[in-house]
Design brief:
alpha/beta; five-stranded mixed β-sheet
C-alpha cells in the first residue's frame, strides 16, 4: 500500500513496497506529484514489502524526510539486516536512512491533519497504525485487512503474539474508524465485518498454530515470487535452502518432514491456486 497525501506545503507517502518494484514506485509518485517534491516517507513497520522502495525514493528526492517506528531504529542506523529480518526471511531491501520516529502516543501531520500514532504489535512487535479522528480514517498496516491480518511472526519464533494481535484488533474497534486503508488490498469501510473476520481467523489460529506456521511458509514463498516475479529453479532452490527462517519454522512445527518436501507441497498448492507457474524457464508469479 502507498498513500500520497498532499496539502499545504507538504507531500507524504506511507509504506512503499518491494525493492524490485522501486522504478515503478518512483514513476507513480512522480506522476501524482508532478513538479512537487516528495517531502516525507512514513513506514508503519519495516518488512521489506513496506519499505523496499525507501532507498529509491530517497535517491529521487534527496531532501525527503523518513519516519519509522522507534523499535528498530538502531538496526536501521547500523543496517543490521539480521536484526531487521531481511536475511532470515530471504527478502531484499536496499539500505535507507531515517530522520524521525513515529512514536506511539504522538501525532504526525499528514495532509494538513494530525494523525494519531498507535502501537500495533502482533504481526510485528514494532508496528504502528495511524488514525485521523476527524474523518475517522485508519492506516492499518498489516494489523487489519478486509479479510484478516498479517502473519503473527513472533509466534513462529516461540514468542507469544496472538494476544497482541487480539489487543490490536480491540484497539481498532475502540478507535471506530469509518474507513480503513490496509497494508494489502483495497480501501474498505465495512470495518465491523472485517474485525469479525479477523477475530474468527485469530481464534482458528490459536486452536491450530501448525496451520498458522504452514500459512507463514506459503506467504514467505509467495512474497518472494512477488518480489522477483520470475526465478530459475536452481535459484529458487538456493533461496529455499538459504532462508534460515523457513527451516526454523519447519523444525519447530513440522518435526521430521524435510524442507524440500514441505516447500514442494506448498509450491504445488500455489500452482494449483493459480498463484504461481512453473515452466522450462523457471518459476513465475501470477
Amino acid at each position: 500500500t502507498n498513500v500520497v497525501c498532499g496539502g499545504g506545503e507538504e507531500t507524504a507517502i506511507d509504506d512503499r513496497g518491494y525493492a524490485t518494484h522501486a522504478e515503478h514506485t518512483v514513476a507513480l509518485v512522480e506522476s501524482v506529484l508532478s513538479d512537487r517534491p516528495l517531502d516525507r516517507i512514513l513506514n508503519t513497520h519495516l518488512h521489506s514489502d513496506h519499505c523496499g522502495g525507501n532507498a529509491a525514493l530517497q535517491a529521487r528526492y534527496p531532501s525527503v524526510r523518513t519516519d519509522i517506528p522507534p523499535g528498530e531504529a538502531a538496526f536501521v542506523e547500523s543496517w543490521d539486516q539480521q536484526g531487521l529480518s531481511f536475511l532470515a526471511t530471504g527478502q531484499t531491501c536496499p539500505r535507507f536512512g531515517f530522520t524521525g520516529l513515529l512514536r506511539p502516543g504522538s501525532e504526525c501531520v499528514l495532509g494538513d491533519r494530525p494523525w494519531q500514532v498507535h502501537a500495533a504489535p502482533g504481526h510485528d512487535p514494532h508496528s504502528v497504525i495511524l488514525f485521523e479522528p476527524e474523518t475517522q480514517t485508519l492506516i492499518s498496516a498489516d494489523a487489519l485487512w478486509e479479510s484478516g491480518f498479517g502473519i503473527a511472526f513472533p509466534e513462529l519464533a516461540g514468542e507469544p503474539s496472538f494476544d497482541d494481535v487480539g489487543a490490536t484488533l480491540d484497539l481498532i474497534a475502540e478507535l471506530a474508524p469509518r474507513r480503513v486503508i490496509p497494508g494489502h488490498g483495497a480501501v474498505f469501510d465495512n470495518v465491523d465485518a472485517a474485525l469479525s473476520v479477523a477475530r474468527r481467523r485469530l481464534d482458528g489460529l490459536r486452536r491450530d498454530p501448525v496451520k498458522h506456521a504452514r500459512h507463514a511458509i506459503k506467504v514467505l514463498m509467495k512474497f518472494k515470487l512477488l518480489e522477483v516475479q520470475s526465478i530459475s529453479v536452481a535459484d529458487w532452490e538456493a533461496w529455499l535452502r538459504g532462508t534460515a527462517y523457513l527451516d526454523a519454522i519447519r523444525s519447530r512445527f513440522f518435526g521430521e518432514i524435510e524442507l524440500d518436501r514441505l516447500t514442494g507441497d506448498i509450491l504445488a498448492e500455489l500452482i494449483a491456486a493459480g498463484a504461481a507457474e512453473v515452466n522450462s524457464s523457471g518459476l513465475h508469479n501470477l
